[in-house]
Amino acid sequence: MSDVELLADEYWRAFRDSAQLWNIDRGDVDQIEHWEDLSPDGVADRVERLDGFARRAGALSAGERTERERALLAAVSFSAVATASTLPTLRDLTLVAAPFNFATYLSVLTPGYSLTTRAHGEGYVTKLRSLPSFVEAWTAGLREGAASGRAATARGVRAAVAELDAMVATDPANDPLASQSPPEEASAAEVEAWRAEVIEAIRHDVRPAIGRLRTVLHEILPMARTDEQAGICHLPDGAATYEALLRASTSTDLTAEAVHELGVEQLALLDEEYRTVGAAAVGLDDPAAVRERLRGDTSLRYATADEVVSDAMATLARAQAEAPGWFAAMPRATCTAVAAHSGPMAYYTAPSPDGGRGGTFFFNTGDPGSWSRHQLEVTTFHEAVPGHHLQLALAQELDLHPVLGELEVVGYSEGWGLYAERLADEMGLYSSPLQRLGMLTLDSLRAARLVVDTGLHALGWTRDEAVAALLRHTAQPRGNAEQEIDRYIADPGQATSYMVGRLEIQRLRRQAESRLGERFSLRAFHGLVLGNGMTPLGELARAVGAWTDRTLASPT
Fold first, then answer.
1. How far, CA to CA in Å, does 335 sit from each of 31, 330, 349, 419, 447?
2. Is 4 helix (H, G, I), strand (E, B) or coil?
3. HSE on the CB side for 318, CA within 13 Å?
4. Interior CA angle at 389 toward 387 and 395, to 5°?
5. How deeply is 22 buried, as exposed, middle or buried, from its count of CB atoms within 10 A (0-12, 13-18, 19+)?
6. Are 308 and 365 in contact (CB under 8 A)?
């Protein structure tokens, strides 16, 4: 085994042992009983270890390396730096106030394990019983962050308290944590006893821990930021922190100013598309009028959850049937569309490592009217097929090191998701001009994110200014626009990854098409982009260039 693979193995073990929230997201039953250490010492120690991994990867990069080794070193280095950059923000801001906050982890992801053995069931109970220790450590970190000026917004803190209040308002037997499916090998009597243990843990451990968290959130509320100081540029070292978060999200060295200008340019280009597609879809060719029509026409919104479910499942089935013609390899794992009643509007979770759970496209039907009919198809293509399911499930099944197969590079991952929305148009998957217009509305949202995220966190915009800009450039209803802006406030930089990544993948495709001419194969290009795993965009560019060179050098 090479020195590069030894380093990657060591990094993978260290990451898995420490990133327990990530393990919850992936349904890792091997780590089921653990929580992440977000105490002040825990975060500081982990950042120091991550910095060490990045330095070691940099030292090994010198000299001759194979393609696989180059990719591994780039992935280890980037993941270590990005994780170290985002940890304090995760602890102090995102886990408190983002739509995908700790309450969502508890109510949606934690009870979603695929439990096989009795030991798995015991681990789940242990996890619930140890929640007070996690909360005690995390809230110590929250207090430290708030004392040093790093606190979420008051709006975000109050929303988090409201979610926690809703969780404890139910009987423990009806708590989402009690909905976890029992271990498959357990007998009926054992299942009954296990459920009793789960409910007892919720009553005596989970609920007091939530109460403790609520108390600390109330304590830091006076130190929280106002809507007028929504961006992290108002925090100590905010400008430098934001630049680091931009690098972590985009995997590029683009400055906040460059990202902002890129968004302005993309919005202008999209307006030209609105003129053509808007005329075909709704009989309007003025971009602002098209967006206002989409925002205000109530007939374009869903009325029932059943309609949302039916359309989501039909769209996914259509995409799954067409995809093999556009990809050299398809994942063995299935993708299922599942209605959720809380959390983000839509998201995807990859298959569990043990194969017990396939890929899942979750879509929130708690408020069906929040779904625009023209946006469900494009969202399905982004989150499921040909989007994140092909990318993430396939990566798990290829002969990739786990660092490349499972550790997300957001600019690559979300860039692929957004690229997939446009690819779906090439594949003929949109069922009507109105659905193609939905594709443009999400493009507008991602381009506007470049403008408003940098506006908030680098230019010092207020929350109201950011909401107004999003409404001006997108078809989002006000309520959705406010939710989007609150997400960007709580998770700085992440929202810029989508459009930056998509534009780079498209640039690389155009470059390869130009160089290869008739020898260019789109299926082969997709195989290359998905077959190398989670690579920073700079490494992806190097890999595409090398592939193009090899293709040109090979006999015709």
1. 24, 11, 10, 19, 28
2. helix
3. 17
4. 110
5. middle
6. yes
- Backbone angles phi and psi of 338, in degrees to 5: -130, 130
Task: Give pLDDT tens digits for 62-101.
Answer: 888 988 899 999 999 999 999 999 999 999 999 999 888 9
34 Cβ contact list (under 8 Å, min separation 6): 20, 23, 127, 130
316, two tokens? 């996914």
Assign 59 a pLDDT band (cuts: 50, 70, 90): very high
Element (H, E) at 360: strand 359-364
Tokens of 23: 């393990």
Are the C-beta atoms of 424 and 381 separated by less than 8 Å?
yes
The CA-based angle 91-94-100, given to 5 degrees, is: 125
SS (H, E, C) 58-116: HHHCCCCCCHHHHHHHHHHHHHHHHHHHHHHHHHHHHHHHCCCCHHHHHHHHHHHCCCC
Q: Write the CB contacts of 50 (distance below 8 Å, at least 6 apart in sequence).
A: 80, 81, 83, 84
Q: Contact at 8 Å (CB) between 115 and 25?
A: no
DSSP output for 168-230: HTS-GGGSGGGGPPPPTT--HHHHHHHHHHHHHHIIIIIHHHHHHHHHHHHHHGGGSBPGGG-
175 vs 190: CA distance, rounded Å: 20
The pTM for the full model equals: 0.90
- For residue 449, pLDDT over 80 is answered with yes
For residue 153 the two structure tokens come to 């917004």
Number of residues that make up the chain: 556
What residue has token string 């060490």?
52
Name the residue type at position 110.
T
Q: Helix crossing, 207-220 with 131-147: angle to 10°?
A: 0
237/29 Cα distance (integer angstroms): 38
Q: Are 331 and 399 in contact (CB under 8 A)?
A: no
The dihedrals phi and psi of 337, each to the nearest 5 degrees, come to -95, 125
Tell me the percentage of the chain whose pLDDT exceeds 70. Answer: 100
pLDDT, mean over the chain: 95
304 by DSSP, 3-state: which? coil
CA–CA distance, 180 with 243 (Å, rounded to integer): 40
CB-based burial, 348-357: b 16+ in 10 Å, e otherwise: bbbbbbeeeb
Classify 347 as helix, strand or coil: strand
Q: Over 90: is that where the pLDDT of 508 sits?
A: yes
**Cβ pair 282, 468 in contact under 8 A:** no
* Pairing state between β 335-340 and 346-349: unpaired
Instruction: Quick: pLDDT tens for 316-343.
Output: 999 999 999 999 999 999 999 999 887 7
Other CB atoms within 10 A of residue 514 CB? 10
